[in-house]
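F.,

This is the one I mentioned.
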């Protein structure tokens, strides 16, 4: 009897472990990996993460993609999905507020006031598609507020999403670009290159919302993942990448 007890106990403990399919905004890639590892350790559930642009995720969800939770780069897409019946009403909340940064892979290239934009000694300025990417839209708002949009617009190199935009700058194909602070921050500091954190008052707040999708309704792992995002461990991880929580 004693030899049978341990496997039976193990089966009971793991029977409730589940997996949640999560669509993750590209700007959250680095912290999401840490979140998934901590979530699995603490809950026993596993988060299967897919990264991409929020606009594309919206189209995929509306076309039946198997995602159960969306971590968006904005607050409008989750609200729209909720209004259209593709997300569960009452589950939407802001898990982070993002910060926009002007970044170059070259140390000393971007000054701490963003004056490099006025000097104009660059050929390419990377920006995410403002029609699909909230960080791209925020960059347009900031340049408009600075009265620089007309001056620099001809030098735009447009990324499909914020991940591709970051790659343009990291590879040197663009001397500088507007990316998410989370993409260039590690251990609460700029990891490499040079950067100017764009003042929040130059653009609308980049509120990033999470929402339970219809395919996640009644799924324990999906509910657990959303609850975990509201906890202290998740908040500490997200804050460490420059987000406001």
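My design for it:
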């Amino acid at each position: 009897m004693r030899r049978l007890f341990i496997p039976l106990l193990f089966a009971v403990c793991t029977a409730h472990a589940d997996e949640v399919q999560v669509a993750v905004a590209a700007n959250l890639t680095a912290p999401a990996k840490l979140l998934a590892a901590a979530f699995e350790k603490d809950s026993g559930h596993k988060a299967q993460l897919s990264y991409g642009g929020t606009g594309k995720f919206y189209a995929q969800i509306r076309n039946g993609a198997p995602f159960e939770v969306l971590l968006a780069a904005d607050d409008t897409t989750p609200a729209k999905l909720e209004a259209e019946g593709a997300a569960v009403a009452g589950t939407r909340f802001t898990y982070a507020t993002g910060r926009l940064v002007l970044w170059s892979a070259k140390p000393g290239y971007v000054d701490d006031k963003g004056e490099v934009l006025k000097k104009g000694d660059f050929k390419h300025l990377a920006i995410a598609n403002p029609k699909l990417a909230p960080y791209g839209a925020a960059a347009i708002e900031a340049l408009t507020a600075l009265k620089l949009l007309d001056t620099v617009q001809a030098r735009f190199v447009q990324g499909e999403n914020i991940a591709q935009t970051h790659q343009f700058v990291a590879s040197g194909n663009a001397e500088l670009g507007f990316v998410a602070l989370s993409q260039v921050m590690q251990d609460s500091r700029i990891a490499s290159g040079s950067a100017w954190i764009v003042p929040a008052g130059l653009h609308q707040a980049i509120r990033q919302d999470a929402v339970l999708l219809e395919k996640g309704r009644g799924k324990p792992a999906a509910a657990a993942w959303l609850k975990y995002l509201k906890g202290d461990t998740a908040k500490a991880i997200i804050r460490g990448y420059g987000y406001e929580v």
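The first strand starts at residue 19 and ends at 25.

Talk soon.
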